[in-house]
Predict the structure.
Amino acid sequence: MTHHFNRTLVGEALVGEGKEVAHIDLVIGRKGGPVDQAFVTALASTRKGHTPLLAVLEPNMPTKPSTLIVNKVTIKKASQAVLMFGPAQAAVAKAVMDCVSDGIIPEEEAENIVIIVSVFIEWDAEDKKKIYDWNYLATKMAIERAIVGKPTVQEALAKKDSAKHPFA
Protein backbone atom coordinates (compact mmCIF):
# COMPACT_ATOMS: atom_id res chain seq x y z
CA MET A 1 0.00 0.00 0.00
CA THR A 2 1.41 3.39 -0.98
CA HIS A 3 1.21 6.12 1.63
CA HIS A 4 1.04 9.73 0.58
CA PHE A 5 1.86 11.48 3.83
CA ASN A 6 3.54 14.30 1.87
CA ARG A 7 0.10 15.76 1.18
CA THR A 8 -2.92 16.37 3.38
CA LEU A 9 -5.19 13.33 3.59
CA VAL A 10 -8.88 13.79 4.35
CA GLY A 11 -11.23 11.14 5.72
CA GLU A 12 -14.88 10.97 6.75
CA ALA A 13 -17.21 8.34 8.19
CA LEU A 14 -20.67 8.20 9.73
CA VAL A 15 -21.58 5.23 11.93
CA GLY A 16 -24.66 4.53 14.02
CA GLU A 17 -27.95 6.33 14.37
CA GLY A 18 -30.07 8.41 16.68
CA LYS A 19 -28.64 10.74 19.29
CA GLU A 20 -25.39 8.74 19.65
CA VAL A 21 -24.56 8.81 15.92
CA ALA A 22 -20.83 9.18 15.27
CA HIS A 23 -19.73 11.49 12.49
CA ILE A 24 -15.97 11.79 12.10
CA ASP A 25 -14.10 14.18 9.81
CA LEU A 26 -10.33 14.07 9.96
CA VAL A 27 -7.14 15.27 8.35
CA ILE A 28 -3.74 13.59 8.41
CA GLY A 29 -0.53 15.39 7.51
CA ARG A 30 3.21 15.48 7.96
CA LYS A 31 4.80 17.32 10.89
CA GLY A 32 5.99 20.72 9.67
CA GLY A 33 3.15 20.92 7.13
CA PRO A 34 -0.26 22.66 7.13
CA VAL A 35 -2.03 20.00 9.23
CA ASP A 36 0.69 20.33 11.89
CA GLN A 37 0.26 24.12 11.84
CA ALA A 38 -3.52 23.73 12.26
CA PHE A 39 -2.92 21.18 15.05
CA VAL A 40 -0.74 23.59 17.06
CA THR A 41 -3.03 26.56 16.38
CA ALA A 42 -6.14 24.63 17.46
CA LEU A 43 -4.46 23.30 20.61
CA ALA A 44 -3.47 26.85 21.58
CA SER A 45 -6.85 28.44 20.68
CA THR A 46 -9.51 27.21 23.07
CA ARG A 47 -12.82 29.04 23.21
CA LYS A 48 -15.94 28.57 25.25
CA GLY A 49 -17.59 25.24 24.42
CA HIS A 50 -14.69 24.21 22.16
CA THR A 51 -11.70 22.74 23.96
CA PRO A 52 -9.38 20.72 21.71
CA LEU A 53 -7.77 17.79 23.52
CA LEU A 54 -5.07 15.27 22.76
CA ALA A 55 -6.24 11.70 22.29
CA VAL A 56 -4.78 9.60 25.11
CA LEU A 57 -4.99 5.86 25.73
CA GLU A 58 -4.83 6.63 29.45
CA PRO A 59 -3.48 9.56 31.45
CA ASN A 60 0.12 10.31 30.42
CA MET A 61 -0.06 8.01 27.36
CA PRO A 62 -0.95 10.02 24.23
CA THR A 63 -1.37 8.29 20.90
CA LYS A 64 1.36 8.05 18.27
CA PRO A 65 0.76 9.65 15.83
CA SER A 66 -0.21 12.62 17.98
CA THR A 67 -3.94 13.14 17.54
CA LEU A 68 -5.99 16.23 18.36
CA ILE A 69 -9.72 15.90 18.96
CA VAL A 70 -11.91 18.92 18.22
CA ASN A 71 -15.65 19.01 18.81
CA LYS A 72 -18.12 19.97 16.05
CA VAL A 73 -20.97 20.67 18.46
CA THR A 74 -20.55 23.34 21.14
CA ILE A 75 -20.31 21.65 24.53
CA LYS A 76 -22.99 23.28 26.66
CA LYS A 77 -23.36 20.94 29.61
CA ALA A 78 -21.28 18.65 31.81
CA SER A 79 -22.88 15.42 30.54
CA GLN A 80 -21.79 16.26 26.99
CA ALA A 81 -18.26 17.08 28.17
CA VAL A 82 -18.05 13.74 30.02
CA LEU A 83 -18.94 11.88 26.80
CA MET A 84 -16.34 13.83 24.81
CA PHE A 85 -13.52 13.50 27.36
CA GLY A 86 -14.51 9.90 28.21
CA PRO A 87 -15.80 7.40 25.64
CA ALA A 88 -15.30 9.54 22.52
CA GLN A 89 -11.68 10.35 23.37
CA ALA A 90 -10.97 6.72 24.35
CA ALA A 91 -12.55 5.47 21.11
CA VAL A 92 -10.52 7.84 18.92
CA ALA A 93 -7.27 6.96 20.74
CA LYS A 94 -7.88 3.20 20.42
CA ALA A 95 -8.82 3.52 16.73
CA VAL A 96 -5.64 5.48 15.96
CA MET A 97 -3.42 2.95 17.73
CA ASP A 98 -5.24 0.00 16.13
CA CYS A 99 -4.57 1.60 12.73
CA VAL A 100 -0.86 1.60 13.62
CA SER A 101 -0.87 -1.98 14.95
CA ASP A 102 -2.85 -3.15 11.87
CA GLY A 103 -0.34 -1.47 9.53
CA ILE A 104 -2.87 0.99 8.08
CA ILE A 105 -0.57 3.70 9.43
CA PRO A 106 3.00 2.37 9.09
CA GLU A 107 4.70 2.28 12.49
CA GLU A 108 7.75 4.08 11.05
CA GLU A 109 5.50 7.02 10.04
CA ALA A 110 3.75 7.40 13.44
CA GLU A 111 6.20 10.05 14.71
CA ASN A 112 6.21 11.93 11.39
CA ILE A 113 2.50 12.71 11.08
CA VAL A 114 -0.30 14.30 13.07
CA ILE A 115 -4.05 13.75 12.92
CA ILE A 116 -6.89 16.16 13.68
CA VAL A 117 -10.19 14.41 14.36
CA SER A 118 -13.44 16.35 14.43
CA VAL A 119 -15.96 14.54 16.66
CA PHE A 120 -19.74 15.01 16.76
CA ILE A 121 -21.47 14.54 20.13
CA GLU A 122 -25.21 15.30 20.07
CA TRP A 123 -26.41 17.41 23.04
CA ASP A 124 -28.85 14.68 24.12
CA ALA A 125 -26.49 11.71 23.70
CA GLU A 126 -26.40 9.37 26.72
CA ASP A 127 -25.26 5.84 25.84
CA LYS A 128 -21.51 5.62 26.57
CA LYS A 129 -21.13 2.21 24.91
CA LYS A 130 -22.69 3.42 21.64
CA ILE A 131 -20.57 6.60 21.74
CA TYR A 132 -17.44 4.49 22.21
CA ASP A 133 -18.28 1.76 19.67
CA TRP A 134 -19.53 4.07 16.93
CA ASN A 135 -16.77 6.69 17.31
CA TYR A 136 -14.18 3.90 17.29
CA LEU A 137 -15.56 2.45 14.06
CA ALA A 138 -16.04 5.85 12.41
CA THR A 139 -12.49 6.99 13.30
CA LYS A 140 -10.95 3.75 12.03
CA MET A 141 -12.99 3.92 8.81
CA ALA A 142 -12.14 7.60 8.26
CA ILE A 143 -8.40 6.95 8.71
CA GLU A 144 -8.51 3.98 6.31
CA ARG A 145 -10.48 5.99 3.75
CA ALA A 146 -8.07 8.94 4.01
CA ILE A 147 -5.04 6.74 3.48
CA VAL A 148 -6.41 4.74 0.53
CA GLY A 149 -8.11 7.75 -1.09
CA LYS A 150 -11.72 6.63 -0.76
CA PRO A 151 -14.07 7.56 -2.13
CA THR A 152 -12.41 8.17 -5.46
CA VAL A 153 -13.49 11.05 -7.68
CA GLN A 154 -15.20 8.48 -9.92
CA GLU A 155 -17.13 7.01 -6.98
CA ALA A 156 -18.26 10.48 -5.89
CA LEU A 157 -19.30 11.40 -9.43
CA ALA A 158 -21.28 8.16 -9.76
CA LYS A 159 -23.25 9.04 -6.61
CA LYS A 160 -23.85 12.75 -7.24
CA ASP A 161 -27.35 12.41 -8.71
CA SER A 162 -28.64 9.48 -6.63
CA ALA A 163 -27.17 10.43 -3.25
CA LYS A 164 -29.54 10.65 -0.28
CA HIS A 165 -28.08 12.73 2.56
CA PRO A 166 -29.59 11.61 5.88
CA PHE A 167 -29.69 15.14 7.32
CA ALA A 168 -30.62 17.11 4.20
